[in-house]
Every structure is written in structure tokens, then in C-alpha cells.
Design goal:
Largest sheet: 7 strands, mixed
Radius of gyration: 30 Å
CATH class of one domain: Alpha Beta
Number of strands: 19
Strand order of the largest sheet: 3-2-1-4-5-6-12
Strand content: 5-15%
Shape: globular
Length: about 700
């Protein structure tokens, strides 16, 4: 359904959830809210109805059947490819005159793209998730969370901020039965899976299929029942030995907090690091891991940890608890090591020393240990209690809303808080400057991209930007790159901006920091090139980048260079015949370059719409025939580069055939008309014949 909310679409009254003591609000200018994927509950639907009741406009985009299941207001159902999502959501933002983009989880691929398009238009991007303070709290903040939260990390700034707010109510007021959360989750994922025919191109953001998770969860619960008595005994023994162990509460393996906000791309890598560091410390305490209460059981933690402990020479001193962490065990630990779990805040609030290995809003000097992990085992420093009080007060006042997503009174309380903050504006924390963003993962992959100012080059820069990537963007004028560089940093990449004039020195320096494994060169070859144009305008500049990157790759005898034709990912050229000539010249250049690079162990991949596509466009005389979106072209390039293909067609034969079939009747009509007008040999036989044919053609 593609419709705007109308007055009769919401029968939900805000008065039904407003406390009796609340005074009427002053009149506010109406906002236009666009909702994307939300919590697995009716929370977004209920919030949307409350905003409509307050006079605001609300729209939603459903991406799969699970989204549709929990939203009953008018919505747009997006069924296209992910490659077309950017253009689609940009159109919705403009058509609906959106003022606020609201989403749950800021790292999902669809949300990243939508947020980029919203920021480019000055639209407020507001993210929500389970609260940093738990239970009973939800997070609501601008831009994003964790690494990209605006909340200050400076202790003095936190103390100043805390003076503006009253101390929050930390007493637990609400509870949600596990069966409610589980039932909603199952219903949501059933809608996702069985709604696939209606949303055939949806790209799921998790790392494993939901049914796989359910199977693992059921299996682990079965084993847990068998081992329940032994596990209860282990926990009781720990309670009797306070201060004799370090605790590591494990996060879910599927948690985006690990992939997007930590130095690790897998939780097992973090566990190996922790065990080896503990073994090297020769600490006399024990090391206890505690599995998440919702762990899906797909990783056999007891076996995995036993194997690592054996390798590290500390077998018998490393143990694992199933079913979560009892408070008594957490509070009596000598210290807690976490990647960035919010259980760290609970530990700090109770005076337990904490070491954070990733990015976290609570990783602040004076609260958490700022020394390396190797030193934490010997000198775990407790948090400053006055700073902790200030931190909780400031965090609750600026980014937290009391309530919950799932059930009864907690949902009602949260809706009230969300409506109030969305209407009045969230607390104006200062946006982090670009240089202050803290990508949590040291770069292990170096990628160089030219032509990222716009088009397919920009799409490729965004596509390759991720935690663990050092992205070097090369342009004649780096001022034009700042917007795309900001997007790439938001995606977790370390970004370097380099001009063509400084490319030799800059590439060498970047390669020293992170080995460059890939060069993506988006060439801007003229459509009707002469030898002078190719040499002076493009090839000389492109060759300079290739030479600099190849020099770095040559020492390792490994690397990949991808040449992306200027005809990829843009509107078709007006002169398709000239474009064919340009493509041939570009192909000759690529062929010769491939031979040279192969001697040094460097592969070369070329990307273009394809020779057949160009010839067809020339024959049909229809330039748009080879047009694809930059995102679709970039997706094709990235898939082909992963396979190390020699050539990549950004326009597939299937799509080309469909376009040709649509244009064929018109082209045949043109041929027939020209034959009638000019004869079989292409010349006008007599003026009279030409006049007669013209009249006949116009009469038709």
C-alpha cells in the first residue's frame, strides 16, 4: 500500500495513555516521521498512532512480512533489490517531506543507506534500541549508538551534564515474561520467512537463519536441563569465594555490538584474546565465562573454552557458566572484562572494576580501566563512585526513556516519553566532529578508491567501507569527498583523503599502516577520445595511481586492481557510437596493463556494461538501454571482484535482453520507415518519391 495517513486511519487516543496530572502541551509545528524497521513488538505501531493523535504525519516502509505483521497503519511495501534501495528511500524522503527518520538498530544495511540519504537532506536521524541502562529503559538518540553516540566521553563534560538533571529512578518498575518476548520473536520471523514471496529481494541482516537459531536454542535448553544441578552447584561455589575470579559475561554471537563496535569480527576471536592474555599474566585468580541467557547454543562454549585453555596451559582454571550471570556472582568478581555489553554498567554501578575491549558509552576514564588488558589482571581499578552517579544521571537525562517495548504499562510509559522527546527535540548533545569518531577496529584491509565524488565510485566507496577497513579516497579536489568520507566513517572505516598530486607519498605511507590489497579505479575516459586526451587527461593520472599502488603490492606479490569504466553505473551516453570507440580504447589499455601486472602477481579485473550492451545501444540508438544505478553497478563490481573475475558486466544479459525486446518493435518500425523513405540503398531515388514517402509517413 502506498498511502499517507489520513484522519480516520488511527483510532488510538493519546489520552488513553497520558497520566491524569499531565498538563496540555503547547501547540507545536507538525512533523513528518518516517519509520523503518522497529522493535519486535507493536511498539512502533502504537508510537505512530500517538504521533498522529498529536497532529503529526507518519509513514512507514515495510521491508518484509515480519515488519508488516506488527504495523497496522498505512505503509509502503518495498519489494525491490537492495541495490535500488537508495534511490527508492531518497524518493520517499522527498515526496513525504520527512523531517525525522526513526529506526531501530542503526547498523542494519537498509538503515545505513536511509540514514545517509536523510543526513544529506538535513533530516534528523533518530535511533532507538534497548536501553544502556537496564532494565526499564530504552535508548533514543540522534545519529547512532555506541561508537557513534553523541554522549561525551570526557569525565568533566559528564559531570557538567549531570548537573542539569535530577537523579533517575533506577528501581525496576516493569517486567516482561520471557514467553511474551519469545512468542513475538517467533511470530516476527515466521512473517519474515513465509512472507518471502511478497518480499523476494529482502536481505536479512543477521549472520544465521532464524530457524537455525531456534534449533540451536532448543538444543541448548535441553542440554541445560540435564546439566542444571551441576551448574547450580558451580554457581554456589563461586558465591562462596568472592574476589577469587575474573568474570567475562559473553555477548550473543549475533550481536551487532561486536561486529560494528569492537576490534573483533567474531566473538570467538575476543575469547581467544582474553584467555591468552590471562594465561600470560600468571594471575592467581580464576577466569570464569558466563554465557548469555539467550545464547543460541550454536557455539559449544564449554568445549571451545576447554580447548583454548589447554593450549594456553591453564586447563582447569577456566570455566563457563550457562544461563546468564547471577547478580551475586557479578558483584563479587575481582573484575569484569567485556567487549561492550551493558552489563558493564551494572558492574560499575556496584563498584566492580571493568575493562572494555570495544567501544562503549561507559568506557570513560575514571569509570573503566584505561590500561591494556594485560595490566588489568594485576591492577583492576574500581570506578569513581561520584563519577558513576554523574554518568548514570547524565545518560538517563539525555539518551534514555523509561519504559519498554513489549508489554502493557512499560510500553505505555515509553510511548509517552518518546512522543514528548520527539516533539520537543532530543537533548542537544553536540555532534562528534569527523575526526572524533572512534572506529573500534584496527584496519586489517587497505582499499584505495578513485572517483568517489559521485556515481559508481561513491557507491563502491560506501560498499567497501566497514570496520577493519582503511579506505583511501583519491581525487583531484578532496573537498568534494567530505560527505562520502563521513558516510564511510559512519560505516566503521578508517578514511584517508588523498589528492592526485600527493598520491606517491600518501600511498606508501598508508601501505605502511595497512597493507593495500585492492585498488578500485573508476576511470573517467572521454566518450570520443583522442590519443592526446587519453594521455593527458585520464591515463596519465590513472597510471600514476596504479604505479603507486602496484609498487606497494609488488613487494607482497599479491593484490587486485579493478578498472571500472566510466560507462558503469550512470546514464547512458548521448553518442553511443562514440562510447563504443571509447570502450575499445579503454579495453586495449586494460589488456596491456593486465599483462604487465601479471608478472608481479597482481590481478586485474575490468568492469563495464559489456561490449554486447554497447553495440546494442548503438544499433537501437537508445543510450538509456545501458543505464544502471550506481548501487547496482557497484554491487556487480564487488561480487565479481570477490570471485577475482577477469571481466565484470554491470548490465547482465538477461536484463539487456528484456530491454532489447521492449525496444525492438520501435526499432523495426524505424528501419521500415527509413527503407520507405530512402530506399534499400539508403539514398533518395527522386524528390517526388521522397515527398510522397514523407506524406505517407505523416499520414500513418
Amino acid at each position: 500500500m502506498n498511502g499517507r495517513v489520513v484522519d480516520g486511519s488511527a483510532n488510538f487516543s493519546l489520552d488513553a495513555i497520558r497520566p491524569a496530572r499531565e498538563t496540555p502541551r503547547t501547540s507545536l509545528a507538525p512533523h513528518s516521521f518516517l519509520f523503518l524497521q522497529g522493535p519486535i513488538s507493536t511498539f512502533f505501531d502504537r508510537l505512530g498512532r500517538a504521533l498522529i493523535e498529536s497532529g503529526h504525519r507518519v509513514q512507514r516502509i515495510n521491508l518484509h512480512g515480519g515488519d508488516r505483521l506488527f504495523w497496522h497503519l498505512p505503509a509502503i511495501n518495498y519489494r525491490g533489490d537492495f541495490a535500488e534501495w537508495r534511490e527508492f528511500v531518497a524518493g520517499v524522503l522527498e515526496r513525504e517531506q520527512v523531517t525525522h527518520l526513526l529506526l531501530h538498530g542503526d547498523r542494519r544495511p537498509y538503515h545505513l543507506v536511509a540514514a545517509e540519504e536523510a543526513r544529506a537532506r538535513g533530516i534528523a536521524v533518530i535511533a532507538t534500541d534497548l536501553g544502556y541502562l537496564r532494565p526499564d529503559w530504552l535508548t533514543l538518540e540522534y545519529d547512532g549508538m555506541t561508537s557513534y553516540s553523541r554522549f561525551p566521553r570526557d569525565p568533566d563534560a559528564v559531570r557538567r551534564l549531570a548537573r542539569e538533571f535530577d537523579k533517575p529512578d533506577l528501581q525496576q518498575r516493569f517486567s516482561t515474561p520471557f514467553r511474551v518476548i519469545a512468542s513475538l520473536d517467533v511470530a516476527y520471523n515466521l512473517g519474515l520467512v513465509f512472507g518471502k514471496p511478497l518480499y523476494p529481494h529482502y536481505r536479512y541482516h543477521s549472520i544465521c537463519h532464524p530457524f537455525t537459531e531456534y534449533a540451536g536454542w532448543l538444543w541448548s535448553r535441553g542440554k541445560g536441563r540435564l546439566n542444571a544441578r551441576a551448574m547450580a552447584g558451580a554457581k554456589e561455589r563461586l558465591k562462596e569465594k568472592p574476589g577469587t575470579y575474573f568474570l567475562v559475561p559473553l555477548q550473543l554471537a549475533t550481536d551487532y555490538q561486536i561486529r560494528a563496535h569492537s576490534p573483533y569480527d567474531d566473538i570467538r576471536t575476543a575469547v581467544r584474546t582474553i584467555v591468552r592474555s590471562f594465561a600470560a599474566s600468571r594471575s592467581e585468580r580464576d577466569l570464569v565465562f558466563s554465557a548469555h541467557p539467550l545464547d543460541n547454543g550454536l557455539i559449544d562454549w564449554p568445549s571451545f573454552l576447554a580447548e583454548i585453555a589447554q593450549e594456553a596451559g591453564i586447563a582447569g582454571r577456566v570455566s563457563v557458566l550457562a544461563g546468564g550471570t547471577p547478580n551475586e556472582i557479578l558483584f563479587n568478581a575481582a573484575g569484569v572484562v567485556t567487549i561492550n555489553s551493558t552489563i558493564g554498567i551494572t558492574a560499575l554501578h556496584n563498584g566492580v572494576p571493568v575493562k572494555v575491549l570495544g567501544n562503549a558509552v561507559f568506557d570513560i576514564a575514571g569509570l573503566t580501566c584505561q590500561q591494556p588488558l594485560d595490566q588489568f589482571w594485576h591492577h583492576p581499578e574500581p570506578p569513581d563512585p561520584t563519577l558513576m552517579t554523574a554518568f548514570v544521571t547524565a545518560l538517563a537525562g539525555t539518551t534514555q526513556v523509561k519504559g519498554g517495548y513489549y508489554f502493557g504499562e512499560s510500553q505505555k510509559r515509553a510511548v509517552i516519553g518518546f512522543v514528548e522527546r520527539l516533539e520537543q527535540g532530543l537533548y542537544p548533545l553536540s555532534p562528534a566532529a569527523t575526526g572524533e569518531w572512534l572506529p573500534p577496529r584496527d584496519a586489517t584491509r587497505g582499499i584505495v578508491v578513485t572517483g568517489a565524488e559521485s556515481g559508481v565510485g561513491q557507491a563502491l566507496a560506501r560498499g567497501y567501507a566497514a570496520p577493519g577497513v582503511r579506505l583511501c579516497l583519491v581525487a583531484a579536489d578532496t573537498a568534494r569527498l567530505h560527505e562520502v568520507a563521513a558516510d564511510c566513517r559512519q560505516r566503521g572505516a578508517l578514511v584517508e583523503l588523498v589528492t592526485y598530486d600527493s598520491v606517491d607519498d600518501s600511498i606508501a605511507a598508508i601501505d605502511q599502516l595497512t597493507a593495500i590489497e585492492k585498488l578500485v579505479l573508476c576511470a573517467d575516459i572521454p566518450l570520443d577520445p583522442t590519443l592526446e586526451q587519453l594521455t593527458d587527461r585520464d591515463l596519465l593520472r590513472s597510471a600514476r595511481v596504479i604505479r603507486s599502488v602496484a609498487a606497494a603490492m609488488r613487494s607482497r606479490a599479491a593484490g587486485q586492481i579493478i578498472l571500472v569504466s566510466s560507462l558503469s553505473g550512470r546514464a547512458g551516453p548521448s553518442d553511443t557510437v562514440a562510447a563504443c570507440r571509447a570502450h575499445r580504447a579503454w579495453a586495449v589499455f586494460a589488456r596491456d596493463l593486465r599483462r604487465q601486472l601479471a608478472r608481479d602477481g597482481i590481478s586485474l579485473t575490468t568492469s563495464s556494461p559489456g561490449r554486447i550492451a554497447l553495440d546494442c545501444a548503438a544499433w537501437f540508438g537508445h543510450p538509456k538501454m545501458i543505464t544502471v544505478s550506481p548501487e547496482r553497478a557497484a554491487a556487480a563490481v564487488m561480487r565479481g571482484a570477490t570471485r577475482d573475475a577477469r571481466t565484470i558486466r554491470t548490465l547482465g544479459h538477461g536484463r539487456l535482453t528484456l530491454r532489447a525486446l521492449r525496444l525492438l518493435p520501435r526499432r523495426l518500425a524505424e528501419i521500415a520507415r527509413d527503407t520507405l523513405l530512402y530506399g534499400e540503398d539508403g539514398f533518395i531515388e527522386t524528390p517526388a518519391d521522397r515527398t510522397l514517402a514523407s506524406k505517407t509517413g505523416s499520414a500513418d
